[in-house]
Specification:
There is one protein chain. The chain is of the alpha/beta class. Helices cover 35% and strands 16% of the residues. It has ten helices and eight strands. It has an eight-stranded mixed sheet, with helices on both faces. α4 packs antiparallel against α6, α5 packs across α7 and α6 packs across α7. The chain is globular.
């Protein structure tokens, strides 16, 4: 067990130097899934759990760098079906409520009473669902690129709204689907992602993941590549599965209808002004329904965690929480 207790100050763009996990483990959970978990920073530090995006995105080492390792005990895990969790790309026994239950299992297994919940995009959605369900376990919420799994949000990204700004990428995304099926691209992709042809599955998975990747940053430049086949398959199948079922929530707008349950939890929302994947109106609506929240709109930023302005705001928030004790 390796433990990093040092603090050498923030690095480029405010990020902390890479910190290796002091503990890695796999937790067996109901439904035949095995969840990969890692802890970084101080073993006796202030707990924070990181909820990655997707569904199906998995964690990366870069996600550790937002937290001062001399203060925080950072818990990261790969949600069901993705990253280092197994079985890979499986949608069996894989719902929002399974993930909420997994978060509680992880908290209990680590002996943590309450923690800060940090999540972006789908991770922000999951953080809100978890906090609404278990408000007594949440010390604070730190959210980025807010998504609430509404029909309007899905229609924006898969119905042509974002495509009006990026027509060349949109054309590549829709061109794989026959014209008579383009009125419901989520359903059209679902048929291929869950069909019996593995080659077709991979082709459509790469197109699905590539469409989102292309729009993640304000200026993608020429060097933004496409994901690997394995990553794309988990990402596309899990996202499509969740979106097909409305996130397994009880009706459209479930999160906003239940924001009263988190009204007193301190929260920070960091939102890119030009986020094409999760437009700012959602972050604004969540902020309006949440009296204890603060909204920080980043003028020159898109969706990704790696956008410099978003990175700087998130590190500043976590450092502010550290300073406040």
């Amino acid at each position: 067990m390796k433990e990093n207790l040092g603090h050498s100050g923030a690095g480029p763009r405010g990020l902390y130097p890479p910190t290796e996990p002091f503990r890695q483990q796999v937790l067996e959970v109901p439904g035949g899934h095995r969840i990969y978990i890692e802890q970084c920073g101080r073993s006796d530090g202030r707990p924070v759990v990181v909820l990655h995006g997707g569904p199906g995105g998995g964690c990366s080492p870069g996600m550790r760098r937002f937290f001062d390792p001399g203060h925080y005990r950072t818990v990261l895990f790969d949600q069901r079906g993705c990253g280092r969790s197994s079985p890979h790309a499986s949608v069996e026994n894989n719902t929002t409520w399974d993930l909420v239950a997994d978060i509680e299992r992880i908290r209990q297994s680590l002996g943590i009473e309450r923690w800060i919940v940090f999540g972006g995009s789908w991770g922000a959605c999951l953080a809100l669902v978890y906090a609404i369900t278990h408000p007594e376990r949440v010390e604070a919420l730190v959210l980025r690129g807010v998504f609430t799994m509404t029909r309007a949000e899905l229609d924006w990204f898969y119905g042509g709204g974002a495509g009006a700004f990026w027509p060349e990428h949109w054309q590549r995304f829709v061109s794989l689907v026959p014209e008579e099926e383009r009125d419901d691209l989520i359903a059209a992709y679902h048929r291929r992602l869950f069909g019996t042809d593995s080659v077709e599955q991979t082709r459509f998975a790469r197109a699905w993941a590539g469409w989102e990747s292309a729009l993640a940053v304000l200026d993608p430049g020429d060097g933004r590549g496409y994901p690997s086949n394995a990553y794309a398959l988990a990402f596309a199948r899990l996202e499509n599965h969740y979106f097909t079922h409305g996130g397994f929530l009880d009706g459209d707008g479930w999160i906003l209808r239940n924001m009263h349950r988190v009204a007193q939890i301190p929260g920070w929302i960091v939102q890119g002004r030009y986020d094409m994947i999760c437009p700012p109106r959602t972050a604004h609506a969540v902020h309006q329904a949440w009296p204890a929240s603060r909204l920080r709109m980043v003028t020159h930023a898109g969706h990704a965690l790696s956008e410099p302005g978003i990175t700087a705001e998130l590190v500043a928030i976590m450092d502010g929480l550290r300073a406040a004790g």
